[in-house]
Amino acid sequence: MRALCWNGVNDLRVETVADPEIINPHDVILNVRLSTTCGSDLHLIDGLIPTMRAGDVLGHEFMGEIVDVGREVTKVKKGDRVVVPSFISCGKCWYCQHDLYSLCDTSHPKPELPEPLLGYPTAGIYAYSHAFGGYAGAHAQYVRVPFADTDCFKVPEGVSDEDALFISDAAPTGFMGADFCNIQRGDVIAVWGCGGVGLMAQQSAMILGAERVIAIDRYPERLAQAEAFGAITLDYTKVDVVEALKELTGGRGPDACIDAVGMEAGGTGLQQAYDRVKQALYMGTDRGAALRQAVLAVRKGGTLAILGVYGLMDKFPLGVLMNKGVTVRTAQQHGQAYVTRLLEYTQRGELTPAALATHRFSLEDSPKGYDMFKHKEDGCLRAVFMP
Amino acid sequence: MNAVEHETQLDAAARAYVTIGMPAEELRTLWQRPDIQALIWADFADLTPVADRTLDWVAHGPAGGEYRWRTETAEVGANEIRWSSLDGADVPNVGSVTFHPAPGDRGTELHLEVKFDPPGGVVGEAVSKLFHVVPREIVLKALYRFRALAVTGEIPTTNPQPAARSGSTDR
User: Among A15, A324, B3, B142, which is 20 to 30 Å from A287 by CA?
Assistant: First the structure.
């Protein structure tokens, strides 16, 4: 089959690789109908996250049609059109049973790699370096999906492929962020970042009853999309964000702040991570600044939901959180807990994930798509690939 | 215990711990199945059952090195299973796994401990050189694999389909 392979820093090529096969009894093989870029991919591509290997097939946000099923799969079948969350979860361990799917205890094939860094391994994830499991990704004609009964969700009538695609990652991640905010009547929610996850967090906050949603970014086309979703927008290059948020909330500050930006500094040690950030100084400082701004802006006793992917951050204003009594909620997406609900919201037209799809490419042109996505050319919010 | 003794003890045995949401008795029975033993240690050694309580181990080191030993289950108690290698082992070792109830409805706490005693040399370092992996990783991986197998009926793997080309290494 054809697949988009990482061959080294900023070296992406579409190559012919072996077709995936059923390995374990709960696996299925998916014929990928659509896959998409994610901001976190850029840091794999740029070499900011270690344990990438030459030939790694990228892509963790996808949907498709089941073409082969393992002998113990019972809930889905050949021909089903399904969306699959980016984290691989068994559905049976303590974490999955408690809706903490991205913390699954059993899906990581190489638990000895993350254990020293994180204390305990997380769930495996598609195409997110070997420290996160080394599973092959979905920018390909086919992808192997383990634990299909837990991880494959049938896409109902009335939900398009493009809508379903983002219910793989951007939508559930954003929705989880809004869910973390425990939104009450009258609440004002501020969201840093108007990429796919940030926009989905904004729309989700409205669905969950936020009185007002404030979106912060600097790219006009992204702010325009946030506005189209009904958010009040702030361009952080033009206003003092903390001051503007005070003005917009009568001096109270947002009840909850959602960081959908992240600072993707991986590394095997603190110093290495810090050095990597310094190498990418512009991006690194910019993104660290977003989180610090959110810490400062959130009201006393408010909630800070962190969705941005972080590595090892050594300069963090913990004292501000402590003195203000801020509740911090964070996680990689527990998608399986939300997908069914999000498909229903989408069916009713309350959630519109397909709005993220601004550019479409064939799989063969996917390196071009990543380039455009990375440089945000032509207002590229998300590039969608069709194998 | 002084610091030196403490460190020596840590070096001497590799330990790992997991909690599995199943009753101890069920896990104890599962642990004693030779086919399960072969699966959980498969990344470290090839296991062949010889008799009910006897297993042959072949561990592979770097550059084609092979180390062989035979283990026998020494004791099966209510909460503990112990085994040890027999005379003539290339790398003598003893191991044990214990099963104790976890609090609330969390199931059973398992402690796995393996002590390798290669001829001559500092234990941890020598084992790492022989097998090209540190003992802690060996026991951790085996115990995590056991949990996966017990909970889901399968062991997570990307073999033979890793994300990368075969033989590709970290960049």
Answer: A324
